[in-house]
Amino acid sequence: MSTHTADTAAFVTMALAFVLNTGCASKRAPEHPTPPPAVTEVRLPQESLFKGDQEILSDRDIDRILATDITLADRRRLAVLALNSRSTWSQELLDLETENSERLLRALAAIPQLTQVRPMPALLVPEKRTVAFLREAAARFQADLLLVYTTRVQTFQQERLIGADVVRAGCTAESVLLDVRTGIIVHAARVSDSLLAKKSGADLDFSQTIAKAQSEATGKALLKMAEDIVTRLKPGGA
């Protein structure tokens, strides 16, 4: 065998050995495998992160409030308080506002659970209308529940050269139902209603038409609000 042939055979043998060794090395499992990354458990905070909050309610009190299951089956006396009132400038408008209040009370009094439904006397309404002061006033009035509501009225009017002027009045009523014994707001709702009215010959001017439409829209919204409370106080109500 020539020297050139011997050198070629030796080179092929070395290359083959290198390939075999490399393949085996690539298939060999590492002696010290890298462990999977540790899973960090995320813990949600169960207390306030702000020290000043403790001056109002402690974390323990908040935990008790959120964990309390309120049952209203034995709450039978309801006080009703409107936080805003509309000024009236005619006997007709005053009668409409009075009728709105009376219809609301009658609708609430029809709830079988309630044995007493009364408006909160104006003399008992606190100057600071916070939940704490309202609760105290309701307790002095011996009410188990306090319904507090407010109304907001908007009108859109269209005065015409030919034909009767038209106004659309809409009312939004917001309410909260307070359990006086625990101080918990057990229900909150927002309802709206509207109507379209035309100026009649009995109206002194269009402003009276608008005022009457506002009162009628308010009455409709208050009845919707009463229906919502009826649903809440029914057995199994949400």
Please characterize this protein's 3D structure:
There is one protein chain. With 238 residues, this protein is of the alpha/beta class. It has one domain: Double Stranded RNA Binding Domain, CATH 3.30.160.150. It is 38% helix and 22% strand. The chain is built from five helices and five strands, in the order ααβαβαβββα. The chain has a five-stranded mixed sheet with strand order 2-1-3-4-5, with helices on both faces. β1, α3 and β2 form a beta-alpha-beta unit. α3 runs parallel beside α5. The longest helix is centred in the last third of the chain and has 28 residues. The chain is extended. The chain starts with a helix and ends in a 5-residue tail after the last helix. The mean pLDDT is 82.
Question: Which sequence of strands runs across the widest sheet?
Answer: 2-1-3-4-5
- Globular, elongated, flat, extended or rod-shaped: what is the shape? extended
- How many helices does DSSP assign? 5
Mean pLDDT across all amino acids? 82
Report the biggest beta sheet as strand number plus sense, adding barrel if it closes: 5 strands, mixed
CATH architecture designation: 2-Layer Sandwich
- By DSSP, the count of extended strands is 5
State the distance separating the first and last CA atoms.
102 Å
From the helix content, strand content and strand pairing, which structural class follows?
alpha/beta
Radius of gyration based on Cα positions: 38 Å
Domains, number: 1
Q: Could you name the CATH topology?
A: Double Stranded RNA Binding Domain
Low-confidence spans: pLDDT under 50, at least 5 residues? none
Strand residue percentage: 15-25%
Q: According to CATH, what is the class?
A: Alpha Beta
Element pattern in H and E: HHEHEHEEEH
What percent of the residues sit in helical stretches (DSSP H or I)? 25-40%
- The CATH homologous superfamily is named Lipoprotein like domain
